[in-house]
């Protein structure tokens, strides 16, 4: 398609209109956009997005959203619980498409050169159900649960990958005021047993492929009586696993729905304060904690985020593929429900035409769905960026030059320069260059939500320019049901997380010991404390921890101490600059912020992942580095470093030295202190995945697990 419009075609538009035409065209194409951009950029720069507010509780600097003086708690009157929001939205949007799933057409296996087998899937079009149909299914499921003998005073757990039935089961439980425990499908056995026993779950709802895992731990699960599984085409061949679960009633999701349809039961609806969800955190700082989320928390975040996405409504199509057990995805889907959008389900491994599990020649989820909205965690956007850059690098020549020109021109414009690409020139670059990049995600993305971890400014800009859509960066925690701060769509800055959402206030409280205070210049700094309707009820079964980090002030406002360090910009926007738990002290008393150093070192081409480690009895840090397979192999080839396989290459002194030099270079460019540059590194050949338990589902490092797994390697680095 790119070849169809050439530069000469583009400029030939002016040929037939003589010199007046040219002058006119210049005014339309350059001067007017320039003028408008000056006016708007000026306005945007001066816009007060967050405003100071007087708050009670611990002393600090409080800020509220600039658009609403009163805290928002519901999306509209009456929608005070998730159950009410669901019912009312389903009525309002009854005929609109709601949940869509692709039909599986075929499944192949390909064998790689090393003998390993990889599954390749062929999916068809999306098949949709309307809001009214989904509402009926949730009601049927709720009735089925009761008929099945689930005691509504006990909890149900969902242990499954993201899919439409996850959402239906979730809503079904609320029709009977059943608290749902959410568990990552990648969770290991011990953590799974711990969370199911701790919350005394009696009904477990899962993927059929989890049945085997459950059968193996059957005797350790003390409270489960019912297991309901989502069918897929593998279920039939899995009959073995059902046999070993004699003490449980095992039913398929469809059977429970059918049972409920035949035997409708009156709903038993929750109130605002009831606990909707016990959600286990992803565990980046140790064992996951069960956060108790009320119905009021969910609707408050949904109501607030809804106001941030411009023109959100039933024309929007949202691509859902992140784990629903993560607060960020669950919050995003609640927002979509609120606004009457269509939600099409996919998965990270089938997202694009070239995704790992997509059969060659068939289409990925995004190409078929053509979403207008999607969410991403920063690690995914980093990969998209690396992928695009790699392709452009491979292409080389004129294509690469043109891309670089287009990128620089757009970058200049976004950063506010009059001389950047505006108006028709933007259109030209879109057609010539960016359209192709955008088509990878279906070509219609108009807003991207990103959150869950810090997003690098470079990546934010890159995605912003290449996708042609603003990125709304959300900041929040499971403890605030994702809702704390959110960047506004017309804010062109990077590296910040926006003003407080309208459902909460954000207060900075001085952390003297760490050297961050609200009287710091040029910007006030301190621990980020969130207060308001999105602040959850605390940790399940852990009053001590709850009382430590959740506080209620004299006016009844509930505050949560996040452990993150932030600073307020003059326009009221928050920037997260550190994490208390990531700051460690060296032997001579200097502090190192591990997360900050890692984020800097990640910008080396050689680094796929990195964990910086500090032994407090030493005066320097060391690092474990997962090198980029491709980049390191390419270097080895050029440098003539012989090796049998990647593992051997990672052990080569030359490779270690090459990566270390690259780290030093980026560290120096970013002006890191000497003690922040790893003195020694170890290259780790295997990637860190959520399945290996070394990173969370949002791809954040699990330091404790990594330290345990690489204990010997870390010790050697300090010898
Ligand atoms: N937009 C963002 N920018 C920077 N950091 C973010 C952003 N969003 C979330 N975070 C980080 O993620 C943390 C919240 O993550 P989450 O609630 O998933 O739990 P976790 O920290 O991964 O797990 P655990 O509490 O078990 O350690 C925040 O405290 C913050 O450090």
From TrEMBL:
InterPro entries from the UniProt entry: AMP-binding_CS, AMP-dep_synth/lig_dom, ANL_N_sf
Transmembrane helix is among the record's keywords: yes
Keywords, in A-Z order: Membrane, Phenylpropanoid metabolism, Transmembrane, Transmembrane helix
One GO CC annotation: endoplasmic reticulum
Ranges where the AMP-dependent synthetase/ligase domain occurs: 121-540
One GO biological process term: phenylpropanoid metabolic process
Pathway: Phytoalexin biosynthesis; 3,4',5-trihydroxystilbene biosynthesis; 3,4',5-trihydroxystilbene from trans-4-coumarate: step 1/2
UniProt name for this protein: AMP-dependent synthetase/ligase domain-containing protein
């Amino acid at each position: 398609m790119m070849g169809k419009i050439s530069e000469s075609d583009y400029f030939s538009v002016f040929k037939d209109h003589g010199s007046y035409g040219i002058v006119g065209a210049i005014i339309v194409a350059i001067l007017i956009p320039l003028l408008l951009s000056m006016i708007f950029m000026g306005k945007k720069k001066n816009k007060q997005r967050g405003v100071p507010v007087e708050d009670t509780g611990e002393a600090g600097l409080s800020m509220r959203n600039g658009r609403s003086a009163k805290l928002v708690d519901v999306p509209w009157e009456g929608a005070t619980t998730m159950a009410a929001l669901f019912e009312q939205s389903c009525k309002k949007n009854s005929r609109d498409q709601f949940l869509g799933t692709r039909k599986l057409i075929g499944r192949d296996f390909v064998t790689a050169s090393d003998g390993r087998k990889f599954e390749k899937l062929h999916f068809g079009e999306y098949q949709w159900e309307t809001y009214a149909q989904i509402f009926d299914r949730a009601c049927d499921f709720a009735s089925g649960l009761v008929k099945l003998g689930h005691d509504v005073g006990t909890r149900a757990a969902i242990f499954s990958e993201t899919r439409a039935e996850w959402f239906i089961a979730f809503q079904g439980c609320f029709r009977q005021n059943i608290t749902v425990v959410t568990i990552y499908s990648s969770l290991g056995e011990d953590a799974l047993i711990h969370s199911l026993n701790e919350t005394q779950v009696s009904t477990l709802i899962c993927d059929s492929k989890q049945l085997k895992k459950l059968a193996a731990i059957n005797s350790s699960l003390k409270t489960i009586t019912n297991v309901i599984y989502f069918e897929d085409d593998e279920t039939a061949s899995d009959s073995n696993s059902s046999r070993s679960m004699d003490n449980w009633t095992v039913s398929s999701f469809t059977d429970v729905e059918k049972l409920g349809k035949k035997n409708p039961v009156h709903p038993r609806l929750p109130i605002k304060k009831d606990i909707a969800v016990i959600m286990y955190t992803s565990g980046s700082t140790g064992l996951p904690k069960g956060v108790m989320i009320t119905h009021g928390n969910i609707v408050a975040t949904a109501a607030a985020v809804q106001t941030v996405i411009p023109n959100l409504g039933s024309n929007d199509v949202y691509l859902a593929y992140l784990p629903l057990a993560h607060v960020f995805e669950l919050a995003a889907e609640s927002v979509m429900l609120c606004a009457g959008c269509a939600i099409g389900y996919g998965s990270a491994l089938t997202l694009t035409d070239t995704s790992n599990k997509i059969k060659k020649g068939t289409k990925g989820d995004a190409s078929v769905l053509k979403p207008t909205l999607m969410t991403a965690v920063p690690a995914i956007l980093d990969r998209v960026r690396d992928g695009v850059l790699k392709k452009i690098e491979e292409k080389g020549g004129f294509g690469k030059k043109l891309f670089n020109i287009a990128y620089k021109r757009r970058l200049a414009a976004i950063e506010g320069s009059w001389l950047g690409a505006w108006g028709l020139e933007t259109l030209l670059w879109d057609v010539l260059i960016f359209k192709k990049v955008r088509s990878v995600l279906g070509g219609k993305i108009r807003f991207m939500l990103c959150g869950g971890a810090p997003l690098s400014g470079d990546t934010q800009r890159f995605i912003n320019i290449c996708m042609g859509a603003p990125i709304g960066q959300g900041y929040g925690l499971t403890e605030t049901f994702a809702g704390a701060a959110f960047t506004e769509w017309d804010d062109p800055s990077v590296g910040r997380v926006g003003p407080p959402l309208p459902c909460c206030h954000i207060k900075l409280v001085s952390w003297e010991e760490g050297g961050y205070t609200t009287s710091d210049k040029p910007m006030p700094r301190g621990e980020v404390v969130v207060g308001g309707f999105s602040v959850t009820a605390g940790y399940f079964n852990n009053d001590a921890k709850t009382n430590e980090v959740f506080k209620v002030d004299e006016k009844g406002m509930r505050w949560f101490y996040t452990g993150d360090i932030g600073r307020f910009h003059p326009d009221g926007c928050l920037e997260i600059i550190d994490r208390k738990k990531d700051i460690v002290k060296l032997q001579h008393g200097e502090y190192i912020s591990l997360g900050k150093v890692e984020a800097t070192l990640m910008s080396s081409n050689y680094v796929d992942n990195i964990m910086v480690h500090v032994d407090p009895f030493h005066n320097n840090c060391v690092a474990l580095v997962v090198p980029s397979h491709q980049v390191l192999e390419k270097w080895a080839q050029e440098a003539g470093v012989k090796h049998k396989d990647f593992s051997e290459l990672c052990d080569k002194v030359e490779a270690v030295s090459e990566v270390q030099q690259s780290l030093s270079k980026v560290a120096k460019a970013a002006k890191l202190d000497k003690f922040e540059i790893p003195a020694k590194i170890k290259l780790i050949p295997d990637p860190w995945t959520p399945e290996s338990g070394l990173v969370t589902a949002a791809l954040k490092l699990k330091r404790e697990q990594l330290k345990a797994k690489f204990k010997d390697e870390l010790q050697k680095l300090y010898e």
